[in-house]
Every structure is written in C-alpha cells, then in structure tokens.
Fold:
Amino acid sequence: MTEGEADLLALLREIDDPEWLEWPQHYDRGESAIHFGALVARLEGDFAARCAVEQDTQDSSEYGRVVVPGVATVCGTRIVVCLSKFGSLALVCADNPGAFLGTDEAQAEGELDGADLARVNRALVELGYVVVAEELLESDYDGPSRLPSHVQRPTWWARFFGSF
Structure:
C-alpha cells in the first residue's frame, strides 16, 4: 500500500461513523447540491458536452453521479464520477463502477485517456473533492459500522457509496 493509499484509508476510517450510515451527522443537502452543480458545470465546460446526472440518491450513501459522454472523450468511453455524501469523496471510473479494475486497467486497455482522467481529477480536486481509487474502495471493509444485511461482501464502496 502506498503512502497516499494509507492516508486515504485513514480518512475513510476517520469519517466512518456507525451512528450515521446514509449521510454524516451534519450533512447539508443544499450545500451538496451547490457543489454538485459546480462540478457538473465544470465538466461540461471542460469536455464541451452535456453531462448526464443523477443527484440526491435516496437510500444510499452515494449523493449522485456525473457522466461525461463517450463522444466527448478521446477513447470514446464514458467517464463516470460518483460522489459520496461523506467527506466529499469521489470516485472516477471508465464506463461504470466495476467495469474495470480501476482507472489504470481502463487506461491499459485503451478505454480511458490519461489526459481526460487528469482533467476530471483536476476539476474534482479544485472543487474540494477527495478522489479515492476504485481499487481502495473495493478492499474489504474493516470499520465499526454495521452494513445492511443485503451487503454480501462488505467493502469501503458499500460503506460510502452503497444502498441502505
């Protein structure tokens, strides 16, 4: 595990509150909507394309998703950005979460351009989001929260982006 991954794992453990599964204690839906709107506007400007959005997801710790259409990317594969209701966590993936074993694999298979990925990551960081790699989110969950019984394999993804 790299130092950056260890720091991100420490952050995930720090924001994990077993009393608040779907959203953090001081969650502000309006503020999340403002940040989400800023991200959508930024990505639409950066990629010169209309992005599809899902927002304010119910019964989930995921706030929403922004989808950069494949026609706007170098490789022709859409880029999906998933946002958590916790700690401004963000996940970037090619095509869909789980379609590849992370962005490195998507790049190696020619489905994700490095410059497109850098553009998305830059927008997220500049807007205050924390980008967490899919590989880390897919690792086994070992935090204090009791995840719902329908979660067959507890992962950090299930904790911070899953359904309840």
